[in-house]
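Please, structure for the following, as tokens.
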Amino acid sequence: MTATVSNDSFFCALYKGQAAIVRYYGYLGLMVGAAALAFLGQGGYNEESYFSRLFAASGALWLGAGLIAGLVVGAILGRRSPRSKVAGMLVGWFDGALLMLILTALFALLEPAASAVAYDKQDGFVSARLVMAMNVLLLFSAICYLVVLFAPESFIGRMGSFAAWLSIYAGGVALLLRWYESYLISPEVGHAPVSNLYEVFILLFCITVAIYLSFERRYGARALGAFVMGLVSAGVFFEIWLDSQGMGDIKPLVPALQSYWMKIHVPLNFIGYGAFAVACAAGMAFLLRQRLESKGSSKLLAVFPTLDQLDQLAYKSVAIGFPAFTLATILGAAWAAEAWGGYWSWDPKETWALIVWLVYGAWLHARISHGWSGRSLAWWSVIAFLVTLFCFVGVNLYLSGLHSYGRLA
């Protein structure tokens, strides 16, 4: 009992007390310093020169100044109010991001020398092996969560959660390494790893699993993992097929994608997609539990979250995804104006993005303004995600337009 109390106290001090506030503002200071280096440093923002400056003396100066300023602000605010809900909620994610960067730096030491790398010789990259590990971990996690439905008290559930966490790190480090590897091939090829379906599927897996695991940790909804990881597993097989079609290779950016907007617009889009996937999983779990209840007693009922909990989880997921998707759509319009001279052109991708936005906007309107809940919104969550999938994948497969660079070759 003493050890448990001690561990709880240590956790509270690390993630809910003054230490969390100081670290939180320290991370914010680092980000402000990195942004200041990009836009106020000598030469302005240029991705290729930015990374070289980031690890040079000028980068250390800007990052150090931002870190010190952040720590000072955090210390002052932490003394005034030793508790901060926002800091406690976000500092853990910042710690995880820092660990991911450290792992990326370590794995980068295993990369082949630049002289041994060429555009048509990408076999030795470490990122490919990490993506394979991510796929195995995701499939293993999905199996574990499925077993949990029938053996909820076993350690299999913890194994599933652990494998899911590892898959996020494997996928995130793989994406960061692909960024580094693109510069190993050639500075002209170098770009952020969110430029094709293969790369954004990895990003989607990481975001979807991260959103689900945050719900699992906060609400104990482990049975929902069978549905979330089931959807992710289907995506894994599609991502493996993409790799078999040559989509896994690092390729130069088309002119329309050569913009800083890509690094903002695409991740925000996939926060929306990932949250909508979790809402779909909650909707499917809701419908299954309701059917089991109508048939009488079932062992599965003791494992599932209640109908009200599943309804709330679907709502929280859409409430996360809709603002992110809205902001991504607005920024996409700004990017389109810069790249093509107009904010909106009724391109198929733009049109279907608008349809997705309207579908989920109506979902929230029905929920908040008209008090809808339960079975109707559960079906709506499932159907809405099918619409989202067509926007994400179907348009790339079947339609063309200004976004035709995203089509499968």
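The chain is about 75% helix and 0% strand. Residues 261-294 form the longest helix (34 residues).
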